[in-house]
């Protein structure tokens, strides 16, 4: 991704790729029988293994960081680890639609945080777009919400996981102003995976002995939702405001619910499909009228 993007259309395409990619995450987690902390840990470690061939190219920028940047990278990684731990665990207690719809609170949290930290403002049309998308997301997950039992516990895990990823996005936006995409992603993934490794040791979770199919799922998680999802979104933070990037989660319930219907046989009504159209329209509206607020694309990017 070293070539300069000359139009917002190019960014929109990559943005769409990221939405589709992260939507596969819930499916892969459902397929795995490993502990969610183990899944998240290997997902991130394997991502960095895949990035190793590029380490030599970026060797200077990987270590040319201040103590303050190292500290915030660790905090960002901790928030990403907490997000994966809580959100992945939620999928064991509630449906994909219900869990992913709660993630739609992320752009609201990021928007408020962006205004407070960066004085980033959203115009009326952007707010309308966000509102339409969130309303559609609520419709998709409303039929699965329950106020008791394991479903409520799963929804609570998803909610706190959403707070964690919102903080991760805000920290990332600030760090990406001074750190290129590769070192930022590499170290954040490394910190997050290491925090999860410590957690797994404390919980007594096994690091080995998994079937080949489980390792295949770990690898799929590393390639599709992490490299083509999280890495891509962290890269886009250089070109888009944090709220716009976080709006990607509003498209996830649509794609994830369709995938869950096709691959996991979870129910999906025409009513929910119609809501999906509203979500995508709302996301488009937000991005379309938020284009002017995005910074100009720099001449080069790592």
Provide key terms for this protein:
mainly alpha; disordered C terminus; EamA_dom; transmembrane
How does the SSE layout of this entry go?
Blueprint: H1 8-23, H2 25-31, H3 36-51, H4 59-63, H5 67-90, H6 96-102, H7 106-118, H8 124-142, H9 149-175, H10 181-203, H11 212-236, H12 242-246, H13 252-263, H14 270-290
Keywords: Membrane, Transmembrane, Transmembrane helix
Pfam family, one: EamA
Main location: membrane
Report the C-alpha radius of gyration, rounded: 18 Å
Q: First CA to last CA: what distance?
A: 7 Å
Q: What global shape is seen?
A: globular
- Broad structural category: mainly alpha
**H/E element order:** HHHHHHHHHHHHHH
Total E-strand runs: 0
- The low-confidence runs, each spanning 5 or more residues with pLDDT under 50, are 1-8, 292-302
What's the main sheet like? none
Number of domains: 1
Number of continuous helical runs = 14
- Give the % helix: over 70%
What is the strand content? under 5%
- What does the average pLDDT come to? 80
Q: Can you offer a commentary on this structure?
A:
This protein is an all-alpha fold and 302 residues long. The chain has one domain. The protein is built from 14 helices and no strands. It has helices at residues 8-23, 25-31, 36-51, 59-63, 67-90, 96-102, 106-118, 124-142, 149-175, 181-203, 212-236, 242-246, 252-263, 270-290. Helix 5 (67-90) packs antiparallel against helix 9 and helix 7 (106-118) packs parallel to helix 9 (149-175). The radius of gyration is 18 Å and the shape is globular. InterPro entries: AA-Vitamin_Transporters (IPR050638), EamA_dom (IPR000620), EmrE-like (IPR037185). Belongs to the EamA transporter family. One of its GO terms (cellular component) is membrane. This is DMT family transporter. It is found in: Endomembrane system.
